[in-house]
Every structure is written in structure tokens, then in C-alpha cells.
Amino acid sequence: MKNGWTYFVLAATVLVYVVYIAMAVWTFYNLPPIPERVVTKSGELLFTAQDIIEGKTLAQKYGLLDYGSFLGFGGYFGIDYTAYTMKFFVDKIGQLKGTALASEIKHLMTPQFSAKTSSLFAPAAGVAVVSDEFGAAYKQAVDFYKQLFGPKAEEIGLKPNLITDPEHVRKIVSFFTWGVMIAMANYTNGFPYMPGILTPNIHVTVATWVTFFILLLVIMPLAGWIIIKFIDYWKEPRITVDLPPPSKEQRLALLGFVLAVLGLSIQGLLGGYLMHKYTEPSTLYGISGINNVLPFNVARALHYNLALLWIAVSWVSFALFVLPYLGVKLSKGKVLAILGAGAFTALGILLGVWSSYLQLLPDPLWFIIGSQGRPVISQGTLWLLLIAALLSYLSVTVWRASKTSPEPIQPLVKILSIALAGTAFGAFMGALPVVTPWWHFTIDEYFRWIIIHSFVEGFWPAIVIPILLILLVIAGMVPPKMAVAAAGLDATLEIVTGMIGTAHHYYWGGQPTLWMYVGAVMSTLEVLPIGFLIAYAVVLWKRGEYKTELQKTLLTFVLVAAFGGAIGVVAFGAGLINMPVVNYYLHGSQATMVHAHLAMPMAYGVPTMLMWTVAFALAGAFGAVQLRRLRMAVVIMAVGFYLQVTLSLMLLMTNQFVTTTQVGYWASKAIFAPDGTPAFWSRQDIQMYVWLRMIGDVVAAVGIGTFLIYMLRGLPKVFKT
């Protein structure tokens, strides 16, 4: 079956990477300067470019960015090192000068760079001159962080005495101080906010207005065109495909699903553990010593890696289960080899993160087989290369399957293959430069967010939607031509807007200001295809053409995923934190948790759980009773996540917003102020809101536990011949 949508999807995939490679050249020649030397006006040398570069590497090695954040990028609990260091400098300079006048302190805080930019091929550029008061504050900051990362580390949720080498601390503080310097010199569009010292520039407001204008300009004609196509295709004939019982080789693939549901269960437990650490950073219900084994940064990295891994393992397993139905011959040995490679990679990632952040791996192994220390992309580079290789192999295999699959779904299979290839290339880019971290923070963030979006906003929708539509076509619920059009349009728009929309993470990281306009517009347009898919799911429900238990199960899961995606992606993503004027105050806050805790489990988790359910049903392990109970379980799980958000995360988000606007960004992420007084996370009302999340956690756990129980019970039936 020839269809032009596959060419559009392929063209979109090539286009986005060409755009990013081209824009990288411009971006990497306009980097915030890393001065060869930072000196005071009296001529004293404070630190060098090499100190800044090595400080960044050390911050990654010690896992500091999976605890706190730098320019808002990193963990959501620990301090933002840039904003907190800025607050420290403001206080100390004010004390040294005996003034509280913001304008005078701001003048003494602002450095003078002799070179305006650094470039990819010239890391160090010029000299930076700072006030003598700034230099004195820097020395005191080094002493402060020696205590924070040393004797006080366990108190704030890190491994006890995490950093004991004073030279390492000095270099890390040099990196933090460089962040303050480029922020004060207006390389970060006025971020982080500190009243009287640093405020948003005009582009933050203008980019938001431009985004609304273009959204309104695009949405009406696109909606009209889609409605016309919707009507054209709706009366097309549908088909029903009766699939034979799976072979022994296909049944082996279901082992991957059991590993996945175990991974999801452990991920949920770690999520609860992390929220408990917000209220009790140094112990666990009074039990001391827990941070020797599972400090906050380790638990956080394991938590989000498990989210990525159980979904990825499920998709690989489902591909192995489905490919024989599409005409691909798989031997028992090949199935076990692929599952084994996936399990080996997943286990390697988890053990690598744990051992790396606990400082059990030497240089440079911590970066290659341990953890890169980059938030979300914390996997060692070796594991990312293995993931890229596995995805590439699956892409080729699925493309071959498109030639032997039933003709009506061939375009859907091809779109799936292209999306897998796009994700594989993103994983490869995330492994660069393979043996050592990028020397410049802005370069690192440029590549880090490309791989994150290739995994989530860009290519994952182009993987999930074709799979769901193939299932709906086979079940006789959707005309094949409509399915192909929906998958093609969604994949094309998601890849273009989702990948180029990566730039909404480039607002405050030192990238050129143009990226703010590109990111705000493209990432907001990303919601359009999601919105149309939600509308389609509602129409599917209203038509009432679902009779069998499998059809009812498909529809229930699709509706839960659609509405969860609408709230998590559309409302709290594009509608809230994408907008620069809002993101400025909520960047790296619990607002991102609100977005992620609805978008990730609903838009990607629920369709993945549907794959488990369909495979076990086809293998004879789930009958009508089990399908009815699992439909109820997925709804209960969704309710749990909604309760998390409404009872806890939204309250934390709004309080952080108020704190930032009134006191400054530093205050919204701190346990205590630099002078030792209690700050945001020490407040009694905030502690109560954190504990309220337990209600949603328990409800979601009931839903997830139901899947775990039924899949473990059903596994023996799977292997009965």
C-alpha cells in the first residue's frame, strides 16, 4: 500500500536533525564566555578557565545535578547552585560594604568580560574582572560549600562527607560562580530572578506574545483541514483480523513484560521514598545511615531511569511479540538474545548510576559505564551506544516487516520503523563525546535536551500512536485509511514541533536569545496533534462500536491515555510551563513534576500497559474477567496520579511561584538560607503538602499492584502449549 505519509515522516526526521546540526554551528560560536582568568580589580587571581571546566566535570561526577540544579537545570529538591551562590554573594557583598542598597550591590556583582563569547574551538577567551568584594565573597563561598558537601552533606540528603577534597570543592564553586557571572552579564535572559539584582529581559514577554499569536494563526486552518479529512475517512471500510495463538517464540517475549511491571513497581516505591526525603533528608523514619546506600541523588536517578527502562523494555518485548504476525521469522535464540541484551543494558544502567554516584568507579569509567551525571541523561555513554544499536536493529527489522505485513497497515509499520531510527540517532547524540563530558555547560545542555526530546516529545509519540492504531485497526474499530492519516499527521507534526521545540529548554542556559522564540512557538504548536487525537478518542467512544472485552479494553486505555495527555501535556506543558513569562518563575520547580507526573504515566505509561494486556490476552493468560479488572485498575492508577497532582504537587508549585516572586528563585528550592535560617522546604505547610502526596501514591500503587499480580499469575498460562 503506497502512502505519502511515510515520506512526510521520513522528511521530518531528516529535517529536524539537519536543523539542529546547522543551528549548533551558530550556537557553538556564540557561547557565554569562559574567561582564561578571573581576577579582582586589585589584580588577585581567583580561578581559571580550567577550574571552571573541571568544576563542571566534578559536579557531574559527584551527582550534584541530580540533587540540586544549575541555572535551574537538574533536581527539583536541592538548591539551585547558581541562584543560591548569587544570594550568598549578595549577602556577603552587602555585609562587606555595609549596604543593603540593591543598585550598589548589583554594580559590585557584575563582572567585566574582555571577550564577549567563547566558541566550540576556543574554550577559554579573554579575562574577567570582578570587584574586590566579589573576590572576598568567592573565598567565603568556597568555605561554605566545603561544609555543605562535607560534614553537612548527610543532613541535606546526600552521601555523608560526599566531597572531602578541598581542591575539588574550590573548582566546583568556581563553576557555580561562573554561572553567577554569566547571569549578571545578561547571557541567561535575566535568569535567575532576584529582586533588585536580576530580572527578566524584554524578550521573555515578547516571545510569549509571539507564541500566542502564531498559535491562533495556525490552529484554525489546521483544525478545519483535519475535520474535513476526518469526515472523508470515517466511512471508509474497516477490517477485522483474527490473529492465531502466539508461537512459543512469541510467548518468550512476554518475559520482558514481567520485568517491566517489576521495574514499574520499584520505580513507584522509589518515587515515594524520594518524596519522604523532602521531609526527612538525613534519615528514613528515624533510621540513620540510609544515605550511605541510597542518598537523594542516587534514588532520583534510579527513579527516572526505571521509568525510561520499563517502557523501553516493554516496547522491545512487544515488537518481538508482534513481528511474527507481520511475517518476520524469529527463532527462540534470537528472541532470548534480544531480551538478554535489553536486560543486560537496563541492569548495567541502574548499577552504573548507583556505583558512580557513590564514588565507586574511577576516572573515566564513571562517565562511560557509570553515570554521566547529566540529569535524565545520566546513563553511561556505553549504555547509550548499546541502546542506539538495539533501536537501530529494531528499526531495520520493523522496516522489513512492513513488506510482509497486511497491506492496510504497511504504512503504519513504516512510520514506526522511522520513529525507531530517529530515537536511535538521538541516543547516539546523547553519548557524545563518549569518553569525557562536554567542557561547556551550554553545549552540554544543547545535546542533552536533544536526546531527551528524541526519547519523549519528538519520536516516542510516533512510536506509540502507530502501535495503538494498528491494534484499533485489527480490532475493527478504525478504518485503515483513517489510521494511516492520523498516524502520519501526528508523527510528522510531533517530530517537527517536538524536536525543534526542544528549544524551550534553551531559555536560560546561555543559548542565543533567538532560541527562546523558536522554542516557545514550536513547543506550543506541539499540542495540536495531541489535541486532535484526544478529539478522535472521544468520537470513538461516542460511536459506541465496541462489543468484545478486548475492544472495551482498547477503548478504555486509549481514553485514559488521551485525557491524561491532554491535562499533562497540553494544560500543564504547553499551557503553563512552556510560556517564557511563566517558565521564568517556575523553571525547575514542582511545576515540572506536575507536568511529568501526568504526561509520562498517562501518555506513555498507559499505552505501554495496554501492550502488556493485549499480549497476555492473545496468549490466553487473560480472559474476560481479567480484562474487566485491569480496565478498572488502569483507571484507579490514573486517579492516583491526579490525586498526587491536586493534593500535593500543585500546592507545592503555587507556593514556589509565590516564594520566587517575593523573595527570589533561590528561596523556592532551599532547605535553609545561606545564613542558616529555615527556608522553603523547612516550612510546616510545605511539609504537610509533601505528606499529602501519599494519598495519591497509595491509590496509584493499588492500580499498578493489580497489574503485577495478574501478570505474575498469568505467566504460567502463557507457557502452556
Automatic annotation (TrEMBL):
<feature type="transmembrane region" description="Helical">
    <location>
        <begin position="553"/>
        <end position="577"/>
    </location>
</feature>
<dbReference type="InterPro" id="IPR000883">
    <property type="entry name" value="Cyt_C_Oxase_1"/>
</dbReference>
<keyword id="KW-1133">Transmembrane helix</keyword>
<feature type="transmembrane region" description="Helical">
    <location>
        <begin position="172"/>
        <end position="189"/>
    </location>
</feature>
<dbReference type="GO" id="GO:0004129">
    <property type="term" value="F:cytochrome-c oxidase activity"/>
</dbReference>
<feature type="transmembrane region" description="Helical">
    <location>
        <begin position="411"/>
        <end position="439"/>
    </location>
</feature>
<dbReference type="InterPro" id="IPR054309">
    <property type="entry name" value="NorB_cytochrome_c-like"/>
</dbReference>
<feature type="transmembrane region" description="Helical">
    <location>
        <begin position="602"/>
        <end position="625"/>
    </location>
</feature>
<dbReference type="Pfam" id="PF22085">
    <property type="entry name" value="NorB_cytochrome_c-like"/>
</dbReference>
<keyword id="KW-0812">Transmembrane</keyword>
<feature type="transmembrane region" description="Helical">
    <location>
        <begin position="459"/>
        <end position="479"/>
    </location>
</feature>
<feature type="transmembrane region" description="Helical">
    <location>
        <begin position="632"/>
        <end position="653"/>
    </location>
</feature>
<keyword id="KW-0472">Membrane</keyword>
<feature type="transmembrane region" description="Helical">
    <location>
        <begin position="6"/>
        <end position="29"/>
    </location>
</feature>
<feature type="transmembrane region" description="Helical">
    <location>
        <begin position="377"/>
        <end position="399"/>
    </location>
</feature>
<dbReference type="GO" id="GO:0016020">
    <property type="term" value="C:membrane"/>
</dbReference>
<feature type="transmembrane region" description="Helical">
    <location>
        <begin position="209"/>
        <end position="231"/>
    </location>
</feature>
<dbReference type="GO" id="GO:0009060">
    <property type="term" value="P:aerobic respiration"/>
</dbReference>
<feature type="transmembrane region" description="Helical">
    <location>
        <begin position="252"/>
        <end position="275"/>
    </location>
</feature>
<feature type="transmembrane region" description="Helical">
    <location>
        <begin position="302"/>
        <end position="323"/>
    </location>
</feature>
<feature type="transmembrane region" description="Helical">
    <location>
        <begin position="491"/>
        <end position="508"/>
    </location>
</feature>
<dbReference type="Pfam" id="PF00115">
    <property type="entry name" value="COX1"/>
</dbReference>
<feature type="transmembrane region" description="Helical">
    <location>
        <begin position="335"/>
        <end position="357"/>
    </location>
</feature>
<dbReference type="InterPro" id="IPR036927">
    <property type="entry name" value="Cyt_c_oxase-like_su1_sf"/>
</dbReference>
<protein>
    <submittedName>
        <fullName>Nitric-oxide reductase large subunit</fullName>
    </submittedName>
</protein>
<feature type="transmembrane region" description="Helical">
    <location>
        <begin position="514"/>
        <end position="541"/>
    </location>
</feature>
<dbReference type="GO" id="GO:0020037">
    <property type="term" value="F:heme binding"/>
</dbReference>
<feature type="transmembrane region" description="Helical">
    <location>
        <begin position="690"/>
        <end position="712"/>
    </location>
</feature>
<feature type="domain" description="Nitric oxide reductase subunit B cytochrome c-like">
    <location>
        <begin position="35"/>
        <end position="186"/>
    </location>
</feature>
